[in-house]
Amino acid sequence: MKFGIVFANTGYAVTPDGAHALGTLADDLGYESLWTVEHVVVPTGYESAYPYSPSGKMPGSEDAPIPDPLIWLSFVAAATTRVRLATGILILPQRNPVVLAKELATLDVLSGGRLTLGVGIGWLAEEFDAIGASFADRAATTDEHVEALRALWQEGEASFSGRFTSFERVNMNPKPVQPGGPPIVVGGHSQAAARRAGRIGDGFFPGRGSVADLVPLIDTAKAAAKDAGR
């Protein structure tokens, strides 16, 4: 059985020594992957309900350090050779997909094809406001961004026309080491997230862990994949 480490870029691992120690230990012990969390900012006194705690609040304080996941994974990539490097999750609708495609492709190249992109739609409305991203459109934005990323990761020039992002005949290089780009794992705890995973994802990262929660979510993901001809 293979195991991954979640919340890898928190606690002691936010420091250079801690990140290096955790990465090399996971590499040496045969762990399958390291999974990072993300928040660009945590607004003081936020009122949005954190969906994975009865209190509605994230673990830790509002000023707890959360390093940028891609920079943290790049640092760890340089100290490791085998363990996969995963975002669990990256809040995709807060990102520019064209810039992100380049960042992810670069990390995949420099890590030797070890990147897994876990994505989610986000839950912290106040953070979206601070960034200038649309909270109301986050689900539709996520779906479109996945398409845009994959278009840019294909060989040759890329074109894409969407509601939120459009580009025509652009060349983005280097391409990822992994053919077609890093696998995209859809995170979330809702039926909508499960349907998205089945429809467009390469995997599913449920946000809840009990059997009672997981069985219907996985069934939904499988059904959505079948409906999509996948």
Task: Describe the overall structure.
Helices cover 38% and strands 16% of the residues. It is built from seven helices and nine strands; from the N terminus they run E-H-E-H-E-E-H-E-H-H-E-E-E-H-E-H. It has helices at residues 16-29, 69-77, 97-110, 125-131, 138-153, 191-200, 211-227; strands at residues 4-5, 33-36, 84-87, 90-91, 115-120, 158-161, 166-170, 184-188, 203-206. Strands 1, 2, 3, 4, 5, 8 and 9 form a seven-stranded parallel β-sheet that branches. The chain has a two-stranded antiparallel ribbon with strand order 6-7. Strand 8 (184-188), helix 6 (191-200) and strand 9 form a beta-alpha-beta unit. 36% of the residues are buried.
How would you summarize this macromolecular structure in one to three sentences?
The protein is built from seven helices and nine strands, in the order βαβαββαβααβββαβα. It is of the alpha/beta class and 230 residues long. 36% of the residues are buried.
Overview features:
230 residues; alpha/beta; two-stranded antiparallel sheet; 38% helix; globular
State the total count of DSSP E strands: 9
SSE sequence, one letter per element:
EHEHEEHEHHEEEHEH
β-sheet strand percentage: 15-25%
Measured as a percent range, the helix fraction is: 25-40%
Structural class: alpha/beta
Report the major sheet.
7 strands, parallel
Secondary structure tally, helices: 7
Tell the overall outline: globular
Mean pLDDT: 96
Describe the secondary structure blueprint for this structure.
Blueprint: E1 4-5, H1 16-29, E2 33-36, H2 69-77, E3 84-87, E4 90-91, H3 97-110, E5 115-120, H4 125-131, H5 138-153, E6 158-161, E7 166-170, E8 184-188, H6 191-200, E9 203-206, H7 211-227
Parallel strand pairs: 1-2, 2-3, 3-5, 4-5, 5-8, 8-9
Antiparallel strand pairs: 6-7
Helix pairs in contact: 1-2, 2-3, 3-5, 6-7
